[in-house]
Design a protein that fits this description.
Blueprint lengths: L1 H6 L2 H26 L3 H25 L6 H20 L3 H26 L5 H23 L6 H44 L2 E6 L5 E5 L10 H4 L4 H4 L2 H17 L3 E9 L2 E15 L4 E14 L1 H37 L2 H12 L3 H29 L4 H29 L8 E3 L1 H18 L3 E5 L7 E3 L1 H18 L5 E11 L2 E10 L6 H4 L10 H6 L7 H11 L3 E5 L9 E7 L26
Parallel strand pairs: 7-9
Antiparallel strand pairs: 1-2, 1-5, 3-4, 4-5, 6-8, 9-10, 10-12, 11-12
Length: about 600
């Protein structure tokens, strides 16, 4: 009755009433001993025994979660009817009790069989209780025959009492075995549920001590679970993290509300971000449900991906803002150029703004670059026809515009051939020191005419590189010509060579540094765009098409090399362009044995 009151299990209630009716039977037996075998006392005695047995069987079926067959209920009704009829007619004892106790024997034996079926290697209570009920059932079967034997009657009552006591204790054992099994099953389910969750579960007291760990994700724990239990967060975690968690625990205990805290932590899986949610723990005692003061459940979820996504979103927004700024700057420059052009160029510019594909933009740029010199040639031809006496002046202008057209077309053809893989590279060992020396000697007179100093600084015993010396010479010519064109008079230009190690690969570099006005970060992003000419090129009005660096970049890429530019955009600090090429460690020959001394390539190209 106590267990039924505590846990409200239906089978416990039925078993309790079964034992209650079994106890009531003894009251009727005392009445029989005092007043004799009166029909009502006999009916009450045997009915109590019958009801106790059928309730025992009914509770057992509820325990195994099955329905009791209707035949047992019919048998109980027939048995009760027989008790009433037999007691009223006062039939002989053997005839009166034999059907009732035979039915009860079947009930007790069947209850024992059920418990024995439910037994396994760990359910000792089931086997003991089942065997006891079977023996008790057999004892019930022989009761009508042996009870009249005077010397056996006391022993029979003693055996019944022993069976009753063992059966009662056995039912308690069965119940506690079920409780233990249910608890173990619940614990397994809880562990499986906790292991399947992405969260880490920590049971902690008010001082921040780890009471229990509920997780299988050891790689997300700050230390192993057995190392955490019994330790406080203040002794294990960084101070700021421990303090944040402690504050959340304290507020949860004070307000009984869930608190949320986010914190970074270095765990075996790496540096992770966690979102911790604290909640007050609820436990159940035998008396009633109550809150256990000081115990808090902390559920920590790995939110590293979310934090990284937020950071990436923030960075993307920042980049978008920078891109918007660059686009706005470019739009302002275009607007300035549009204001300086004729109505025809304005219409061309508006058409250009509507084009979305790179091919259309390329064609528009080409048409623009070719139209200017052609227009100038047509204008000079027209003036020459009307003013033949100014022949020298007009021919000089026409020569410059013709050279400009020639350089533009040559650049376009070179880019076209490079992009269509129509340029066949002939790789040979090349000495960059020798190449630098040739170009410095060749360009020194031009540099002096522009008031510039040209220096050479080469690394000794420089490894050779495999390259097409003709195309590589064209790259050096483009960069060095840019440096001479855009470096103010009185400044200097340095050509140097060096090596570097990168990703277990030896690289050889040829650098050209000037002390001009430099290249801003915004312009560096467009250095290799076709026809792009920066502010320095527009202000100096130096000749150029804006194709040189695009060609140089493509040639270096065909050599599997890199073309780097370094400039802070500060006037006087200039810019440094470096051509990096891989070298073969197995190639023993160095610059001491100058296999190829490339001749400089004529012509010039503008930086932008």
């Amino acid at each position: 009755m106590f267990l039924d009151y505590q846990y409200r299990e239906s089978y416990l209630r039925v078993w309790a009433f079964s034992w209650l009716f079994h106890a009531i039977r003894y009251l009727f037996m005392l009445g029989i001993l005092r007043y004799g075998e009166m029909p009502l006392l006999l009916i009450g005695n045997h009915t109590s025994t019958l009801v106790s047995g059928i309730l025992l069987l009914f509770g057992t079926y509820q325990f195994i979660e099955k329905d009791l067959a209707a035949g047992w209920w019919y048998g109980a009704v027939i048995g009760f009817s027989w008790i009433v009829v037999a007691a009223t007619l006062k039939v002989p004892f053997l005839i009166f009790t034999l059907p009732i106790f035979t039915f009860l024997a079947l009930i007790y034996i069947w209850v024992g069989v059920i418990f024995m079926r439910e037994a396994n290697a760990t359910k000792i209570g089931h086997r003991v209780t089942g065997g006891t009920f079977i023996l008790w059932g057999l004892h019930k079967a022989n009761y009508p025959i042996l009870r009249p034997v005077m010397w056996f009657a006391p022993w029979g009552y003693l055996m019944s009492a022993v069976f009753e006591l063992v059966s009662a204790i056995g039912i308690l054992l069965i119940y506690f075995e079920k409780v233990r099994y249910d608890l173990a099953t619940s614990q397994q389910q809880l562990n499986a549920f906790a292991n399947a969750l992405p969260d880490l579960g920590f049971v902690m007291d008010e001082r921040g001590t780890y009471v229990d760990i509920l997780t299988a994700q050891e790689n997300l724990l700050y230390a192993r679970a057995e190392q955490l239990k019994g330790k406080t967060i203040h002794n294990l975690l960084p101070y700021d993290v421990a303090q944040a968690i402690q504050d959340a625990i304290t507020r949860t205990l004070q307000t009984r509300e869930t608190q949320i805290v986010e914190y970074p932590l270095q765990v075996p899986a790496g540096e992770c971000w966690f979102e911790g949610r604290t909640a007050l723990m609820h436990l159940t005692t035998l008396a009633a449900e109550s809150d256990v003061a000081g115990l808090v459940l902390l559920l920590a979820r790995d939110i590293t991906e979310r934090i990284e996504a937020e950071k990436a979103l923030h960075d993307a927004a920042h980049r978008m803002a920078e891109l918007h700024k660059q686009v706005q700057t470019y739009a302002d420059e275009l607007e300035e150029r549009v204001n300086e052009r004729t109505a025809d160029l304005k219409r061309a510019y508006e058409e250009l703004q509507r084009l979305n594909h790179a091919q259309d933009e390329f064609v528009s740029n080409v048409s623009h670059e070719l139209r200017t010199p052609i227009t100038s040639l047509k204008l000079r031809h027209y003036l020459l026809e009307r003013h033949p006496n100014q022949l020298a002046e007009h021919l000089a202008v026409m020569e410059r515009e013709t050279q400009r057209l020639e350089h533009t077309i040559e650049g376009l053809l070179m880019l076209s051939r490079l992009e269509q893989d129509r340029v066949t590279l002939e790789f040979n060992p090349v000495d960059l020191n020798a190449l630098a020396e040739v170009y410095v000697m060749d360009r020194t007179p031009i540099a002096r005419e522009n008031g510039l100093l040209l220096h050479l600084c080469c690394q000794a015993e420089l490894p050779l590189v495999l390259a097409d010396d003709g195309l590589l010479s064209q790259v050096i010519n483009i960069i060095l010509t840019n440096a001479i064109n855009y470096t103010p008079s009185g400044e200097s230009i340095t050509v140097s060579t060096r090596t570097r190690e990168l990703d277990n690969q030896l690289w050889v570099g040829l650098s050209i540094s000037d002390t001009g006005r430099g290249i801003t970060a915004e312009e560096q992003a467009h250095l290799y765009d076709r026809f792009f000419r920066g502010k320095a090129a527009r202000e100096s009005r130096a000749p150029g098409t804006g194709l040189g660096l695009a060609i140089a970049k493509k040639i270096v890429a065909e050599h599997a090399g890199e073309l780097e530019v370094y400039s802070q955009g500060i006037p006087g600090e200039g810019a440094t362009f470096t051509v990096w090429l891989k070298t073969n460690r197995a190639m023993a020959t160095t610059s001491g044995e100058k296999l190829i001394r490339a001749a400089p390539v004529g012509g010039s190209s503008a930086r932008q």
